[in-house]
Design a protein that fits this description.
By secondary structure, the chain is of the alpha+beta class. Helix content is 54%, strand content 11%. The chain is built from ten helices and five strands. β3 (74-81) and β4 (84-93) form a beta hairpin.
Length: 377
């Protein structure tokens, strides 16, 4: 079974990034303005590739203007098949919506870089695909060619056959039927069956020109405008095409700058609003800090006063100690002149001499006592 499995918006339709699964039965519900119509139109565009038949009312932005505002606006469709999964990339190039098919399921890393920003062009996306060895198709810039690929009318283009949802040369009524279903047009079951049967037939389709007469109005002026795109000057250059490409590049750059300006303006407005909210709190904090500063300055003054007093006292003590040291030095010099070392040495023998003196005194008393006894005898 082949079906649209997922749709991804990147910087598209005011959506920065969204992945929406569509496999199986899906029900959309929500209040007005949440994006139901935006999603349904993107799904319908996948099937009919016709920007004029998406239910966009007069006065609303066109599909191109709304879904592809900048060069990094993308819509990616992931399609599931029996043999695997492939994806279709829609992007704008030189004022047109173009398609690329690549043989892989969708991966965010292919389109969003490490700075969480979308890659700005196809070359950057292709570089990521090549790194992962994923094949991609050539650029498809005509809606008719895209529908031929999608519905299997690929004569002479066998490389696109793997991307077909079905294979039919006369599929034209199928996208029209899907379009009527999604746009809530009145349809009967019998008409849907006949549409599918006729689309699968290989009979030639008869085209009633009366049906398309309104499409042929102003054909000559439109044809003249088209011819300007192939007119060459003497040097073989197509001036109009070169000018148009330059204008398209400048327009894309301008849109990108306008978007950035809008983003920066929102950031600036938020910052200003935040500053206004924080201003009273910061003023209160400043007042508190000023009060703390006054208290600290007072404490510093008191500490400095105490320090000065201690310093003066310490200087006085140092002066007294210095005088004492000077006197001690003078006495040391005087003692050296008196040969204090010898005196100290002699003084150290005092206890020995006193002991000898005592011994001699005792001996004298003993001898005197003996002599007295002899005298008395």
């Amino acid at each position: 079974m082949r079906y649209l499995n997922k749709i991804i918006f990147i910087n598209s339709a005011t959506i920065k990034y969204a992945e929406i699964m569509l496999g199986g039965n899906v029900h959309f519900t929500g209040t007005q303005g949440v994006g139901k119509s935006t999603l349904l139109r993107a799904i319908l565009f996948f099937y009919n590739a016709d920007t004029q038949k998406l239910g966009i009312k007069t006065g609303q932005k066109s599909f191109y203007e709304y879904y592809f505002q900048t060069t990094d606006s993308y819509i990616i469709y992931e399609i599931a098949k029996e043999t695997g999964t492939y994806s279709v990339l829609c992007y704008k190039h030189l004022g047109k919506i173009c398609f690329r098919f690549f043989d892989s399921e969708y991966k965010k890393s292919f389109f969003i870089n490490e700075n969480n920003k979308a890659n700005e062009n196809w070359e950057q996306i292709k570089e990521q695909l090549n790194k992962n060895q994923i094949a991609s198709s050539n650029k498809v810039d005509r809606y008719e060619d895209y529908r031929d690929i999608l519905y299997g009318n690929n004569d002479g283009k066998k490389e696109y056959r793997k991307y077909a949802l079905l294979e039919s040369k006369q599929y034209q009524n199928i996208p029209r039927t899907i379009q009527n279903v999604l746009l809530n047009a009145e349809l009967k079951a019998e008409f849907i069956k006949q549409t599918i049967i006729k689309s699968l037939s290989d009979d030639d389709i008869e085209i009633d020109l009366k049906t398309y007469i309104h499409e042929l109005k102003n054909f000559d002026s439109q044809l003249a405008d088209i011819k300007k795109w192939i007119e060459k000057n003497k040097n073989g250059e197509i001036i109009v095409k070169s000018q148009a490409e330059q204008i398209a590049k400048l327009h894309n750059a301008l849109k990108h700058l306008e978007r950035e300006k809008y983003q920066f303006a929102k950031q600036l407005a938020w910052a200003i609003n935040n500053i206004e909210i924080q201003k009273p709190k910061q003023a209160e904090k400043l007042e508190t800090q000023e009060a703390k500063k006054t208290i600290l300055l007072k404490k510093i003054a008191e500490i400095n006063d105490i320090f000065q007093k201690k310093r003066d006292k310490s200087l006085g003590d140092i002066k007294v100690i210095k005088n004492t040291i000077d006197k001690a030095k003078e006495k040391d010099d005087d003692y050296k002149k008196q040969n204090i070392s010898e005196i100290i040495q002699r003084a150290s023998k005092k206890s020995i001499l006193l002991s000898n003196q005592e011994n001699l005194s005792n001996e004298k008393q003993i001898l005197s006592a003996q002599f007295t006894e002899l005298t008395l005898r």
